[in-house]
Specification:
The protein is an alpha+beta fold. The protein is 32% helix and 29% strand. Strands 6-4-5-8-7 form a five-stranded antiparallel sheet, with helices on one face.
Length: 173
Amino acid sequence: MIREPEKGWFVLIDICGEFGIKNSREYSRSLRKKFGEDHVKLIKVADRRGRMQFMNCIPQRLMDYVRIRRNIIPKAGYVYGFVLHTPFNGQKTVKIGRTVDWERRKYQYTCGNYPKHIFLMKKVDDNIKAEKKLLKFARESPHFTLILDFGREWFETDLSDSALDRLFDDFLE
């Protein structure tokens, strides 16, 4: 249960426990650094034993930010898949991902990481759920091999661009 000692302010240690964040003190420091001192404040709150303690508290909008960062709130946006311009280890390399704003996201891919062929671009109501479904499909498919050097969204494949188009054409329908 997340305590609300003042209207609109929530106890950070409760939020951290609820969302699986291990170190609430370190997390409060990072929130202060990112959003400023006025977004994390000490409020006197009864602890689990009933003693009054000063505890770090954050406003509702920061709790929403934590939920989004922890992938707890669904976000409308896009899921995408593309073939990299430069292959990794001589193999065709694909990236599967999600974004809220593709026009902005595509400029973050630089050098050999930029898209050569986009085989999937789909607007969805919940891009977190859709991406999870796509990644599960790719991990379980014999056509893809996960590249752990890059992260969980990069795969090698021997499929042609047209085969990728057909495979993902109506995947999320």
